[in-house]
Amino acid sequence: MSNNALAILAMAAAYVQQAESMEEVSRFGIRRARSSDISLLESVERSAAQLFRTVNLGFLADGPTLDPAVLSGMAKSNHLWIAVNDWDQPIGFLGGENFEGNFHLVEVSVAQDFQGRGVGKALMSNMMDQVRREGYKTITLTTYRDVPWNGYWYAKMGFVEVYAQAMGRKYLDIMVQEGKQGLDQASRCVMMKAL
Ligand SMILES: CC(C)(COP(=O)(O)OP(=O)(O)OC[C@H]1O[C@@H](n2cnc3c(N)ncnc32)[C@H](O)[C@@H]1OP(=O)(O)O)[C@@H](O)C(=O)NCCC(=O)NCCS
């Protein structure tokens, strides 16, 4: 076989390998959380938060992750959704809880290598379908208004900013608590979506 033919074969093999690995990372499923998932979610959340380094919010990447007891509570209420790869390993999660009669989204995180492939959107749409069936009329959350994968991302899914004051004392308490954790209150907002 000529050198040219060998080079073409090598290029074709490399192309197939690349295509296979791209397909591999693009496939995912969404399922309910199991207790065995809980200890694996810290690394997912930590990996996801690395994105904040790109907007000078690196302290979030180094900050505390969700309390496992809180995650377990959400799992027990069936309000913790896990995105998994082909091997059923968590690559993302979304958790929330009843808060003042609204379904309040506490955290959505997708591990760095899997971001921008629709995993976050799929977690959101699974959550919205389920909580709508459960009878919730509204979903709330707090986020950074001007960060592309926060306020803008939620706005694309129909969330709108609402005044924290109008939402009541408990929402103001969340904002105050976030301020104590170093989150700039002027950049944060409450968002809401009617179902
Ligand atoms: C927010 C987050 C969960 C989104 O998950 P994801 O799987 O990357 O998002 P998706 O692939 O479903 O995103 C879909 C849309 O968001 C856009 N998007 C995703 N990441 C983006 C980024 N870094 N910058 C700009 N747009 C982005 C995509 O372009 C896409 O837009 P389209 O629907 O118009 O095509 C993920 O970015 C993350 O884990 N971020 C760190 C943790 C975080 O900020 N959580 C939210 C706390 S309030």
TrEMBL record:
Recorded hits in PROSITE patterns, A to Z, give: GNAT (PS51186)
Alphabetically ordered keywords of this record: Acyltransferase, Signal, Transferase
* UniProt GO molecular function: acyltransferase activity, transferring groups other than amino-acyl groups
Instruction: Please give the superkingdom of this protein's source.
Output: Eukaryota
Family matches, as SUPFAM superfamilies: Acyl-CoA N-acyltransferases (Nat)
Signal peptide span: 1-21
Report the InterPro entries cross-referenced here.
Acyl_CoA_acyltransferase, GNAT_dom
User: What is the protein name given in its UniProt record?
Assistant: Acetyltransferase
